[in-house]
Amino acid sequence: MIISLDRATWPDVPTSAGFVLVPVGSTEQHGPHLPLTTDTAIATAVSDMVARQLPERTVVAPPIAYGNSGEHAGFPGTMSIGYEALRTVIIETVRSLALWARRIVLINGHGGNARALDDAVAQMRAEGHDVAWTGCAFPGGDAHAGRSETSAMLYLAPAHVRMSLAAAGDTRPIEQLMPLLMEDGVRAVSPNGVLGDPAGANAYEGMILIEAVVNTTLRRIRVFSPDHRGRLTYPANRKDREAQRS
User: Fold this and answer.
1) Number of domains composing the chain
2) 243 within some domain
3) Domain with 82 in it: what CATH number?
């Protein structure tokens, strides 16, 4: 059973919900062809799909739609609240939810939020709250607004994708780009804001990518074994588990 807080009234909400899933996204540029809310849309969709497959009564909260997106500040439309503010928002969100929720999982759609989530969730676990977080990274995906995210949005919200404007940006590996991004931001390396190439993106591929993230997230939640930072990092499948043990 899934209860969406954005459509519920307070009597609809169980006094001891099994799980509360909180999508965490961002409002930041995603090239000329994807909406600013791409990360939030993906995190919200994954949360909804996961909730429908959990056996307990699961509440999905409205998303935290602003993240730590300073690297995208060179583009109009980006709204970043930064590390400190995001950390505080997560802490106060968990404290509030914990008054009536048994277990809280934050589903993150933006990589720049990771440090704030690590620090906030670790603090909340130290305070005794049953909370963890996990990300929506696509297996083998490109860095930003490339084929993976474009495919995902063609599956989730095709009316919001402007494929006629899609164009490649900087296609170097993210490991190579990261020092430049940290120092100068995305615009310095990619004037159109894309890190990757959206060419070939399609809704079917997006469905496969989203389903993979949903399945991985379900496995992690069912095992619920957070690391010291509060991350749910349970391997995605048997092959991954065997590799981790070797």
Assistant:
1) 1
2) no
3) 3.40.50.10310
